[in-house]
TrEMBL record:
<dbReference type="GO" id="GO:0005886">
    <property type="term" value="C:plasma membrane"/>
</dbReference>
<keyword id="KW-0472">Membrane</keyword>
<dbReference type="GO" id="GO:0022857">
    <property type="term" value="F:transmembrane transporter activity"/>
</dbReference>
<keyword id="KW-0813">Transport</keyword>
<dbReference type="InterPro" id="IPR000522">
    <property type="entry name" value="ABC_transptr_permease_BtuC"/>
</dbReference>
<feature type="transmembrane region" description="Helical">
    <location>
        <begin position="188"/>
        <end position="206"/>
    </location>
</feature>
<feature type="transmembrane region" description="Helical">
    <location>
        <begin position="67"/>
        <end position="87"/>
    </location>
</feature>
<feature type="transmembrane region" description="Helical">
    <location>
        <begin position="123"/>
        <end position="144"/>
    </location>
</feature>
<keyword id="KW-1003">Cell membrane</keyword>
<keyword id="KW-0812">Transmembrane</keyword>
<feature type="transmembrane region" description="Helical">
    <location>
        <begin position="281"/>
        <end position="300"/>
    </location>
</feature>
<protein>
    <submittedName>
        <fullName>Iron chelate uptake ABC transporter family permease subunit</fullName>
    </submittedName>
</protein>
<dbReference type="InterPro" id="IPR037294">
    <property type="entry name" value="ABC_BtuC-like"/>
</dbReference>
<dbReference type="GO" id="GO:0033214">
    <property type="term" value="P:siderophore-iron import into cell"/>
</dbReference>
<feature type="transmembrane region" description="Helical">
    <location>
        <begin position="212"/>
        <end position="238"/>
    </location>
</feature>
<keyword id="KW-1133">Transmembrane helix</keyword>
<feature type="transmembrane region" description="Helical">
    <location>
        <begin position="35"/>
        <end position="55"/>
    </location>
</feature>
């Protein structure tokens, strides 16, 4: 009831609907803490699930996720650098720049090896990811102490506990713009499912389209990681789980994956906040704890097609 009253009041519709204002303390809790956190979790979950579907289709790799091209490691490196330097206010910007830089390095390396094939893309992403992870570990070992170490650890595990309306604007805006574009590429991803040759035969500019989609995934993932840290398994397991219900047609798979991703991460964050109250877990721990057994079940159910 307090949630509804707070929202209606802030929208200016309280007098029209005959809703009394919420007491100041409850209103602050709902409007400044709970609502931004829920909306950020929903946007991040939807975006990661969408990116997971696109990455699995482009690379034809069932184990692909949004972090495949070193995006998570690049974002982590950028975030760790500013946290160690004490410039916390720059964290979203640094994480986004790190993710985009990692993408650029991975695509340049893959392009230097020849045509941008799925195998070269995956291997280049793995190389960049390992390099960024090594540098991140060195920075943490050499420089992180006390509060900065705790902030780094929390960020690396993934959390939306500190979400604000700025976080909602970044994650929600990215999903609204880039997510909508990716969700409309169902027929293109269907063509990629049958391989590059078949896609080219259908009139698709394979390399150009793959580059554009990878850049779109990277920009969206970078925006999401910049506000939530690295939250695993959402972009990996949910596309598989939804695919068991909808089949391989991307026109239905993309929007349903986004919806399931949003719902899943909101409930996972609720569990992270309440299970060990008053202490909170990073939501990345909860998604991994739920995701690992669920993924095992998905693999078991689809074992005949593996």
């Amino acid at each position: 009831a307090d949630v509804w009253r707070s929202i209606v009041t802030h929208l200016g519709a309280g007098p029209l609907l005959g809703v009394d204002p919420v007491p100041l303390l409850q209103d602050g809790t709902v409007w400044q803490l709970r609502l931004p956190r829920v909306l950020t979790a929903a946007a991040v979950g939807a975006g990661l699930a969408l990116c997971g579907v696109v990455m699995q289709s482009l690379t034809r790799n069932p184990l692909a996720d949004p972090y495949l091209l070193g995006l998570s490691s690049g974002a982590s490196l950028g975030a760790v650098l500013v946290l160690v330097l004490g410039a916390t206010v720059l964290l979203p910007v640094a994480a986004f720049v790190g993710a985009v830089a990692a993408l650029a390095a991975a695509l340049l390396l893959a392009g230097a090896l020849g045509a941008l094939t799925p195998t070269r893309t995956v291997l280049a992403g793995l190389a960049v990811s390992q390099l960024c992870a090594a540098v991140t570990s060195f920075v943490i070992f050499w420089s992180a102490t006390g509060d900065s170490y705790r902030e780094i650890l929390s960020w690396l595990m993934g959390s939306v506990a500190g979400a604000t309306w700025s976080s909602v604007a970044i994650a929600g805006g990215a999903v609204l713009v880039l997510g909508t574009v990716l969700a409309s590429t169902g027929s293109v991803l269907d063509a990629f499912t049958f391989g590059d040759t078949a896609a080219a035969a259908l009139g698709l500019a394979v390399n150009r389209t793959r580059w554009l989609l990878l850049v779109g995934v990277a920009l969206l993932t970078g925006a999401l990681v910049s506000v939530s840290g690295s939250i695993g398994f959402v972009g990996l397991i949910l596309p598989h789980a939804v695919r068991l219900v909808t089949g391989a047609r991307h026109r239905l798979l993309l929007p349903l994956s986004a919806l399931c991703g949003a719902t899943f991460l909101v409930w996972a964050d609720t569990a992270a906040r309440t299970v060990f109250a008053p202490r909170e877990l990073p939501v990345g721990i909860v998604t991994a704890a739920i995701g690992a057994p669920v993924f095992a079940v998905v693999l078991w159910r689809g074992r005949r097609s593996l």
